[in-house]
């Protein structure tokens, strides 16, 4: 099974790019972030015509997450991350597909930092840690993937000295990610490529993609069941070079 995550940066505005990638890559399961579309404006029919079932949690203008499955049943488990009933951001959705729990997330950016947005990000991280621990306790094959808005180490960022005060790289944010992983999750990309420079995001400015001046902020965290079944992983970097594309590239793993 091939599972992919892709911050599409506007599902309707970049629908041709998404459909082209789905046709070429044919992932079995896809987690999308930053739909930037209200619930009723998700392009369900176009996704269905491409061979995918879908569940989604939309939001006007910002945020939004979705899970797609190619010819497979999606059993929705949860909409929204527990722990704050007043949080109206559409940032988390969870489903069961072929016996695997799939959590799709779009973690807050947190900038400008310090400030209220960083505080919200860290609170969101705490809620994620609590929910992730509960998922591990269920003893089911589980993957939590998406745009985490965190570069875990200096290996994951071009010129790290320029990012020391950014909310994606501040020590407390990196520590929050490490605390999450240390529960018993496996960072899939780093398991297979422990020392390789791999980026998943390239800014639209200053020819970042052409210079390979990127960030690794899209991650797969695997429960012990899937850690043992992980076969391969990669980034569809060429998609970042397509016309009118997202500033993220799709990231994927293959499991037995």
UniProtKB/TrEMBL annotation:
InterPro entries: AP_endonuc_1, AP_endonuclease_F1_BS, AP_endonuclease_F1_CS, Endo/exonu/phosph_ase_sf, Endo/exonuclease/phosphatase, ExoIII-like
Keywords: Hydrolase, Magnesium, Manganese, Metal-binding
Annotated positions for site Transition state stabilizer: 149
CDD domains reported in the protein's UniProt record: ExoIII-like_AP-endo
Residue numbers binding Mg(2+): 7, 34, 147, 149, 247-248
Leader sequence segment: none
Highest rank taxon of the organism: Bacteria
Cofactor details (free text): Probably binds two magnesium or manganese ions per subunit.
Domain Endonuclease/exonuclease/phosphatase: 4-248
Any GO molecular function: double-stranded DNA 3'-5' DNA exonuclease activity
One GO BP: DNA repair
Site, as annotated: Important for catalytic activity: 218
Site (Interaction with DNA substrate): 248
Active site positions: 106, 147 (proton donor/acceptor), 248 (proton acceptor)
Keyword Protein transport: no
Family: Belongs to the DNA repair enzymes AP/ExoA family.
PANTHER family: EXODEOXYRIBONUCLEASE III
Protein name, entry field: Exodeoxyribonuclease III
Naturally occurring in which organism (per UniProt): Pedobacter yonginense
